[in-house]
Automatic annotation (TrEMBL):
Start-end of Basic and acidic residues biased regions: 135-144
Localization per record: Nucleus
Single GO molecular function: histone binding
Keyword Nucleus: yes
Composition bias type Acidic residues, residue spans: 120-134
Any one Pfam family match given in the protein's UniProt record, by short name: Nucleoplasmin
Annotated region (Disordered), positions in chain: 120-187
Keyword Nucleus on entry: yes
Keyword vocabulary terms for this entry: Nucleus
Domain Nucleoplasmin core stretches: 6-108
Name of this protein: Nucleoplasmin-like protein
Source organism phylogeny: Eukaryota, Metazoa, Ecdysozoa, Arthropoda, Hexapoda
Length: 187
């Protein structure tokens, strides 16, 4: 189970950088994820000033710094971001402009480490049960194959040379011929 909390930070000339790192705090012994939904330019922003928000985070092997929002009064007062940060730390910096720029989103707290261990044990048990179910499935499949062979023998020609059973209907229909109502009435 995960818990979801509002996350918000304001970047301005007096507070240009903010780091999200819940793993550094002992009060969050759970997995964490940050979702940034929007960047909003505050009403006190100066006209004709570009405000650039940059993020620094870890990628596959090293860190990356990249701008995520460029806002300007009269042109772009907000930007929809929808960026997910599965790993901490994440640093947001106002690299240009004086703001204020508000970043809003959600902080997701995952399950406790013990809960993950319990889930792993449950998954292993389920896999063991499925393997047992697979052997039962193979037995049922073999029984069906044997029944299918008997059914094929029943559909062979009778003494009069006419095919009987479902195969006769299918063979007539496959040739474009419809079964006659008189023959069906006799049977």
């Amino acid at each position: 189970m995960s818990d979801e909390y509002f996350y918000g930070v304001t970047l301005s000339s007096s507070h240009q950088s903010e780091t999200w790192d819940p793993e550094a705090k002992a009060e969050y012994p759970r997995s964490n994820k940050l979702l940034i939904r929007q960047a909003l330019l505050g009403p006190d922003a100066k006209p004709d000033e570009l405000n650039v928000v940059q993020v620094e985070t870890m990628c596959l092997q090293d860190s990356i710094k990249i701008p995520v929002a460029i806002l300007k009064v009269g042109e772009t007062r907000h930007a929809r971001l929808d960026i997910e940060f599965p790993d901490a730390p994440v640093t947001f910096t106002l690299t240009q402009g004086s703001g204020p720029v508000h970043l809003i989103g959600q902080h997701l707290l995952g399950a406790l480490v013990e809960e993950f261990e319990d889930m792993e044990e449950m998954e292993e048990e389920m896999l063991d049960e499925e393997e047992g179910d697979d052997s039962q499935f193979k037995e049922d499949e073999n029984k069906r194959k044997g029944a299918g062979k008997r059914k094929a023998n029943e559909d062979e020609d009778d003494d009069e040379g006419e095919p009987k059973g479902k195969k006769s209907k299918m063979s007539n229909n496959a040739k474009g011929k419809a079964t006659s109502p008189k023959k069906n009435a006799k049977k």
